[in-house]
Amino acid sequence: MSNKKKVRVELRKNRTRPPRPKGWTRDYSGGEFNEDAIVNDERVRSKGELSRHRTIIQEDQSGGKPGEIPTQDMPSVDTEACQFGRVIRVHGLYSMVQTADGREVRCAVRRLLKSLITDERNIVTTGDRVWFRPTGTDEGFIERVEPRSGVLTRASRRREHVLVANVDQLLIVISLVQPSLKPHLIDRYIAAAEQGGLKPILCLNKADLADRTELQPLIGSYTQLGIPVVLTSATTGSGIDQLRELLTDRATVFSGQSGVGKTSLLNAVQPGMALRVKSVSNVNQKGRHTTTYAQLVAMEFGGWVVDTPGVRQLQLWDIVPAEIQGFFPEFRPFATLCDFPDCTHTHETGCAVKEAVSRHQISARRYHSYLGMFQGTLRD
């Protein structure tokens, strides 16, 4: 059975066919009306041009990896006429591509790439390895995007938004105060990291403003999962050396809420970078956007870092409820003991996972994160 589905795509008018011929009634009266020729020849425009989309049949590409662009959709390129580079930032309609010799080329995306049938909000993202055709000394057109590995994605208006591609690890930057600590957001980031093939690292910033003894239960719940945890302060310099060691010779994406101090940490890790920072709003204790686009930065001590804009929420992309428990490895020893093989660990009787939570063998906070993510996928 063919694996195909109906999809809605943007309507692109066919400018190659002639407009609808006039004088149908006159031709019909004269015995010259040819219905088949009219159907095959004319270009019909919807009344008032209100129809903006059309339905087509395409191969079902669901089940692919996050951020993946099907290779068969990518056009071939002339490697003699094109150059290879890496996207270091995307700003509006243009991408800044850095070549192997360090040159930066301002590139637009070839129209063919934009017309690809894809669920992604952005065809090109920071970190992409691309082929571009130069149109001048510092301008060009991106003609092909190479397959990705290691991506951070989220759902945005029912489409996949790839924040960054081709990185090794995700540094989850969480503020202990101003804005306040949000443990449930940590768990969503860990799930997104596992989904995208990234190693998660938890960075608890502004540690100079918090009582570290109160943080031990939180820290312990993640170190038991094998997730590195580093406490930092861009103000005092505490933990910066440890953070620098974790970043050395790796490609890392910094992500977290606005105002948690991602940019301040980068300035502390590599002095002289002089990236702009802003304070947290005193009205709602929410961060103010300083970084407005993801930017790839080379580190002097080796490696790359991607500084991303702050997020208010992180909605996982292309996740069904049954997959959520896979992001909670502490459930696994107990899940096999449930009375029902398809137990969702939410409402069923005889659930060994819920029993483990009541006995404090599983963190109640982590379990509540699981329930929130599970219910969220049901609503989506």
From TrEMBL:
Compartments, record wording: Cytoplasm
UniProt key word Nucleotide-binding: yes
GO MF term list: GTP binding; GTPase activity; metal ion binding; rRNA binding
Cofactor needs: Zn(2+)
EC nos: 3.6.1.-
One example of a Gene Ontology biological process annotation: ribosomal small subunit biogenesis
HAMAP family: GTPase_RsgA
The protein's name in its UniProt record: Small ribosomal subunit biogenesis GTPase RsgA
Species this chain originates from: Tuwongella immobilis
Name of the gene this protein is made from: rsgA
